[in-house]
Amino acid sequence: MTIKAILTDIEGTTTDINFVHKVLFPYAYKQLPGFLREHASRDDVVAILDQARAELGQPEADLETLIAAFLGWIDADKKVTALKSLQGLIWVTGYQQGDFSGHLYKDAYEKLKQWHQAGLSLNIFSSGSVKAQKLLFGYSDFGDLTPLFSGYFDTTTGQKREAQSYRKIAAAMAVDATEILFLSDVEAELDGAAEAGMQTLLLARDQLPEHSAHRVVSNFDEISL
Predict the structure, then answer these.
(1) Which residues is 216 bridged to in the sheet?
(2) In total, how many domains does the chain have?
(3) pTM of the model
(4) Nearest in space to 185 (alpha carbons), one of 75, 88, 81, 108
(5) CB of 184 within 8 A of CB of 191?
(6) How far is CA 185 from CA 49, 116, 124, 141, 165, in A?
(7) Does position 91 have pLDDT exceeding 90, yes or no?
(8) pLDDT digits (tens, 9 = 90+) for 23-59
(9) What is the Cα–Cα distance from 66 to 90, expressed in whole angstroms?
(10) How far is residue 212 from each of residues 74, 187, 216, measured CA to CA in Å?
(11) CATH number at residue 24
(12) Closest CA to 125 of 64, 61, 173, 178
């Protein structure tokens, strides 16, 4: 079946999951209090703080209360929009200062570059915000890769395990779902994409599953279109 577009997950697929959990998240946690105290009057930060007050139901919450709330949300692994936005701003600084670069598996980089050169539309669907996605690929281990990609999608489009999210993405890409290949390391996400009509491929880098409803590869080198 013809493939005109690639839709790929990031964590565990193009990127080592440890980069997110052992580099990005701890960096944001450590920098967050100082960042907020220094930039609390910046317009974009003011908007995030107001979102956090609404989330807490405390319209008069002061800065230290909000700092404690943000750190608490990180500890509890809460998916709070204000927190994601704030982490994105902190990561901008980290990337720009060269404190880290966006991890990408070499096999993923080579194959994505090859697909782009072949004229395929490359797109991202990740639970991380679009801003965070663009930072990771913009400051990647292999330089600025954002020119490779046509579209970026996050959970503002929908949840990653729901077929409707993939229908929306196919519509936004203006490509028939049957001509899109979705890559992920999570079977439930692939189930949602398959239900929407997409072709699917499971990236099982650490251990191949005994059974899967999807085609399985251990890295991008094994992907043949």
Answers:
(1) 202
(2) 2
(3) 0.88
(4) 108
(5) no
(6) 34, 22, 14, 21, 17
(7) yes
(8) 999 999 999 999 999 999 999 999 999 999 999 999 9
(9) 16
(10) 33, 8, 8
(11) 1.10.720.60
(12) 173
